[in-house]
């Protein structure tokens, strides 16, 4: 029985809320066991079915997990807490290279595109019952998808990559199903999966993307879905190569019922070709957001996939927000048509910041990864110590714990605004923070 915290409530909803509040406040810690159903029912003076219903609610929300005779316990990374709290508070005067944001100077101006979209909205207002997807945006997005070899499929527009992934997972899976995710991988996704009552199954990653043997192991073990980042993987910068795509497609063909979700948020900021996996399974979706290239606040992503999945997603969207603002869609279409962004120049700018840092670290015996995108991933032997020493030296980096499950420790450096004159100083600080005699340590997967 718990000693530090007393669970309260007479109804299932109240009991579940009591546990969830305690997890959020830290009174119940990750991994802490909960009382057996009958014991807690006796203490609260309620029917055991009431406690069982509360625990079921908590499992579906991703707060607790149940492992047979070992009982129920708070999840290692409960959805109530999230990974966003695993961050460094940046004091005044410390250089922040932890935030994962694009360089504002490389984002296109939005004023003209939104002015034109607003003028069109005055002439042709969008009303209830109108099409949810702007025709011009659909036309231009489909042309880009065709050029990249993404199979034909219906289109939807959603509020960013994470919104797309959530809608797709909910459309296909039920609480308790396992989702294979990259490790290290996107912290928000690692929070989302358990928040939906699903289980995460880690898949190792190297510079060329998810490891085929790990994917096969996860699917053999019963994972019903696989989420893959095609390029600019967060936090490692991995990009799926042609050879890796062939190997992954071969594995996926052995498990045709797998729900395949591809995230290409790196479109527009990378100079590596896309090697899509779409179509390797019966149920698939491909998501392409504009956040990194055009600005996070646009909150827009184009989603395509098989007809059944898209029908489910669009049907559920109609019952919720209905559609993503057509004014925003028109503005994005105008940005695309006007060539407001030069993807080649943007990709070259980010590469010119990543590559020198990786080389400078290598010269100092520190292994680092960053094949594409905004970030460099640096394996370290002591994550907490490295973050603290770098902060003391004037650099705020992202702790790797935000992005990993079973992967070895590391730190993430966002290079998007890194100046040429800062590279050497940062490399020296990292080398010093890693510690003498341990700079050659590596363990990406």
Descriptive labels:
445 residues; 15 helices; 14% strand; disordered C terminus; single chain; three-stranded antiparallel sheet
Describe, in plain words, how this protein is organized in 3D.
There is one protein chain. By secondary structure, the chain is α/β, with parallel strands linked by helices. Helices cover 40% and strands 14% of the residues. The chain has 15 helices and 15 strands. The chain has helices at 12-25, 37-44, 48-60, 111-123, 135-147, 161-172, 187-195, 212-220, 242-253, 291-294, 307-319, 326-338, 343-363, 383-392, 423-434; strands spanning 64-66, 72-74, 95-96, 155-158, 178-183, 199-206, 209-210, 225-229, 259-263, 283-289, 301-305, 375-379, 395-396, 398-399, 410-414. It has an 8-stranded mixed β-sheet, sandwiched between helices. Strands 12-15-14 form a 3-stranded antiparallel β-sheet, covered by helices on one side. Strands 1-2 form a two-stranded antiparallel ribbon. The longest helix is centred in the last third of the chain and has 21 residues, at 343-363. The radius of gyration is 23 Å and the shape is globular.
């Amino acid at each position: 029985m718990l000693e530090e915290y007393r669970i309260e409530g007479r109804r299932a909803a109240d009991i579940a809320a009591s546990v969830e509040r305690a997890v959020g406040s830290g009174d119940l810690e990750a991994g802490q066991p909960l009382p057996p159903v009958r014991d807690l029912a006796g203490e609260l003076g309620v029917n055991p079915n009431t406690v069982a219903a509360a625990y079921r609610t908590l499992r579906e929300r991703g707060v607790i997990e149940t492992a047979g005779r070992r009982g129920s316990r708070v999840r290692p990374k409960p959805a109530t807490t999230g990974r966003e709290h695993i961050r460094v508070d940046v004091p005044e005067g410390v250089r922040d290279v932890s935030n994962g944001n694009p360089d504002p100077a490389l984002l296109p101006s939005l004023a003209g595109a939104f002015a034109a979209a607003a003028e069109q909205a005055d002439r042709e207002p969008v009303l209830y019952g109108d099409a949810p997807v702007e025709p011009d945006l659909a036309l231009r997005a489909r042309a880009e998808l065709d050029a990249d070899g993404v199979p034909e499929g219906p289109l939807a527009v959603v509020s960013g990559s994470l919104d797309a992934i959530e809608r797709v997972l909910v459309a296909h899976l039920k609480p308790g199903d396992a989702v294979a995710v990259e490790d290290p991988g996107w912290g928000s996704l690692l929070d989302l999966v358990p928040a939906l009552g699903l289980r995460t199954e880690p898949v190792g990653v190297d510079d060329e993307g998810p490891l085929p043997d790990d994917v096969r192991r996860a699917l053999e073990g019963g994972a019903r879905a696989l989420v893959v980042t095609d390029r600019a993987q967060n936090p490692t910068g991995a990009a799926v190569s042609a050879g890796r795509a062939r190997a992954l497609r071969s594995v996926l063909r052995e498990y045709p019922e797998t729900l395949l979700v591809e995230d290409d948020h790196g479109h527009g900021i990378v100079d590596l070709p896309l090697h899509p996996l779409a179509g390797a399974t019966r149920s698939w979706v491909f998501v392409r957001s504009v956040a990194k290239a055009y600005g996070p606040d646009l909150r827009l992503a184009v989603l395509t996939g098989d007809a059944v999945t898209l029908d489910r997603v669009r049907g559920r969207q109609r019952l919720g927000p209905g559609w993503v603002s057509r004014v925003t869609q028109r503005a994005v279409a105008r940005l695309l048509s006007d060539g407001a962004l030069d993807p080649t120049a943007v990709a070259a700018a980010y590469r010119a910041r990543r590559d020198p840092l990786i080389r400078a670290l290598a010269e100092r015996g520190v292994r680092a990864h960053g094949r594409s995108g905004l970030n460099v991933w640096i394996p370290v032997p002591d994550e907490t110590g490295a973050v603290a020493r770098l902060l003391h030296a004037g650099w705020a980096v992202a702790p790797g714990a935000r992005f990993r499950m079973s992967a070895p420790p590391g730190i993430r450096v966002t290079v998007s605004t890194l100046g040429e004159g800062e590279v050497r100083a940062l490399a020296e600080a990292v080398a010093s923070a890693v510690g003498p005699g341990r700079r050659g340590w590596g363990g990406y997967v």
